[in-house]
DNA sequence: TTGAAAGCGCTAACAA
DNA sequence: TTGTTAGCGCTTTCAA
């Protein structure tokens, strides 16, 4: 912890705190000789300003709370990485917290942050109970992608836009029978939009396999999917699509020749898979820009913004 | 930011700050009736203690600086994820910083943290210039895996142990000709140790392909590696091994039937690849335990500790 | 040009 | 049982 203080320098220089402060801050109203002397002394003594004390005095904060996913791997890690860089460029640093298990833990964590943090970015869906609890806390909440805290601002993601483009891409590539695998309503909405946009002649046959959204789930539905005789499948997540890729690899099914595959999330693993996975990407840059803007300008009113996902075509479709 | 203060409650309750403080802290020396009244008032007014002020007064800190990799994806993200959880359980929260580009930026960042943070965990190799600079700062540095800051403590990883076990595993599986692909000395050391440990009869033929350590590099050396007629290859990183997997997939080479493959890092992508990648894992749990221990006990003396990597056998070898 | 002093919100020794 | 007060390290107003 900071160890040498203004006072100590003042004593050593046989002057007042105010004068030392002037010298250090490069302010007017101090003789050149004295300034130089103090500066040298400060550097010799290894002075470091205590920003915590400064912020207390100035009622400022240079930290931003970030509450993330349990599993930092995956999309969240890329989002966070980008956010950290942008915040840093603006002179802010993130304080990281895991999403709370219960109301108690959550309250405790945020109280530990109080006085340090004005804004908290929430990358996590929270129970209504928790959201109510939070709205009574002094911080301003920026919810990413989920229900906003009352009085907080929210940035949401339109997942359907990228899915729609993906499906249209499949149709343009000649697919006649497309299945949706998974269970997330946000994805289905994209599917629907694409189908609605197509004429009766263009519209492919469409089906749905209900399934979980992890690697193993994608693997598990492999045989059903193949049995259905589809041209193409859209999966709720990349992990899931990767699971299906594993299935088709084991059973000698060629992707995309026999069946085209699209995932969702733009995970790193999908960029490196065989074949490389076509996917839907989150609007990371745009959202993070907005977050930094809100933090910098200390916007504390409730607002909301929406951002669109986009389709990325790679080897699998 | 916290908005209602002890003073405000004191005024509202028509008493002194000290009494309010006693009530809130559950301390002795206050009448039951008064305590109850104050507690109710505080909750009605939405009081939140300002921890920044408390810490300033108590000369304490509940944050830990963490300087990470540029790219938070990969091993680092898993390490960080685990560390955040452990720190939180101990009542600490990480402040995240990107590894600095230059001495200026680094100094600036750490100065912004002063007063908030006693310990800074460094997950990044730093130039000697930077390390010297840091040793003059008030924080205590815990270097993970790299040259330590003078007066700091360091936790290092013995990468060779896991590599050695991987190679021995290959030999036990009957491999007669093994190549090392990459360029990292830490990996070669493991190879050497394995070869030294084997008798002349057991020792496989051994070769080396010099290469970069990314996905594309692994792909690029595919043809050379196949041409060499090896039955197993060890790659410096999982990304690289994944690149080779892509090559072999494209050229219809069966892994592990024709060639066994081992990577390094235990990346998520390698758990999901086809085939699942055998790899060498970092000692994440043990290291993070030690970090939390150091932070909790406010160990400020220079120390060093070493941790071992371990081999994980999956489908590719 | 220089310094005394108040105060950010909190804790705790000490006095009443 | 209650209150006064000093002080953590800093900034800044105001007076000298």
Descriptive labels:
homodimer, 317 residues, alpha/beta, 434 Repressor (Amino-terminal Domain), Rossmann fold, 3 domains, six-stranded parallel beta sheet, four-stranded parallel beta sheet, DNA-binding
Can you describe what's shown?
The structure is a homodimer of 317-residue chains. With 317 residues, chain A is α/β, with parallel strands linked by helices. Chain A folds into three domains: 6-49, lambda repressor-like DNA-binding domains (434 Repressor (Amino-terminal Domain)); 58-158 and 285-308, Response regulator (Rossmann fold), CATH 3.40.50; 159-281, Response regulator (Rossmann fold, 3-Layer(aba) Sandwich). Chain A has 14 helices and twelve strands. The first copy, chain A, has helices spanning 6-13, 17-25, 32-45, 51-58, 75-89, 103-112, 128-135, 159-172, 185-197, 215-220, 222-227, 238-250, 268-272, 284-296; strands at 63-67, 93-97, 117-122, 140-144, 153-158, 177-182, 205-210, 232-235, 260-262, 279-281, 304-308, 310-312. In chain A, the strands form three sheets. In chain A, strands 2-1-3-4-5-11 form a six-stranded parallel beta sheet. A four-stranded parallel beta sheet of chain A has the order 7-6-8-9. In chain A, strands 10-12 form a two-stranded antiparallel sheet. In chain A, α1 (6-13) crosses α2 and α1 (6-13) crosses α3. The mean pLDDT of chain A is 93. At the A-B interface, α4, α5, β2, α6 and α12 of A face α4, α5, β2, α6 and α12 of B.
């Amino acid at each position: 912890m900071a160890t040498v203080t203004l006072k100590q320098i003042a004593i050593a220089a046989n002057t007042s705190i105010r004068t030392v402060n002037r010298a250090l801050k490069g302010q007017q109203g101090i003789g050149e000789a004295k300034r130089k002397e103090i500066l040298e002394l400060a550097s010799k003594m290894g002075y470091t300003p205590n920003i915590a004390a400064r912020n207390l005095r100035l009622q400022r904060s240079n930290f931003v709370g970030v509450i993330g996913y349990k599993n930092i791997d995956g999309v969240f890690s890329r989002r966070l990485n980008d956010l950290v860089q942008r915040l840093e460029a603006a002179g802010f640093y993130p304080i990281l917290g895991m999403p709370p298990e219960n109301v108690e833990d959550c309250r405790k964590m945020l109280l530990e942050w109080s006085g340090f943090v004005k804004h908290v970015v929430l990358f996590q869906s929270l129970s209504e109970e928790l959201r109510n609890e939070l709205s009574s806390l002094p911080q301003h909440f920026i919810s990413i992608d989920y229900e906003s805290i009352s009085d907080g601002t929210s940035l949401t993601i339109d997942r359907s836009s990228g899915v729609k483009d993906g499906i249209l891409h499949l149709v343009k590539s000649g697919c006649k029978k497309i299945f949706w695998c998974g269970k997330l309503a946000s994805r289905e909405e994209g599917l629907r939009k694409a189908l609605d946009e197509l004429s009766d002649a263009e519209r492919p046959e469409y089906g749905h396999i209900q399934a979980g959204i992890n690697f193993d789930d994608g693997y598990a539905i492999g045989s059903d999917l193949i049995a259905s005789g589809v041209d193409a499948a859209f999966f709720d997540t990349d992990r899931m699509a990767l699971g299906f890729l594993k299935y088709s690899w084991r059973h000698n099914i060629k992707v995309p020749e026999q069946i085209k595959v699209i995932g969702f999330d733009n995970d790193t693993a999908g960029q490196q898979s065989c074949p490389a996975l076509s996917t839907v990407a989150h609007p990371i840059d745009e959202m993070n820009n907005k977050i930094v803007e809100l933090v910098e300008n200390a916007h504390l009113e409730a607002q909301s913004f929406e951002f669109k996902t986009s389709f990325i075509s790679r080897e699998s479709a």
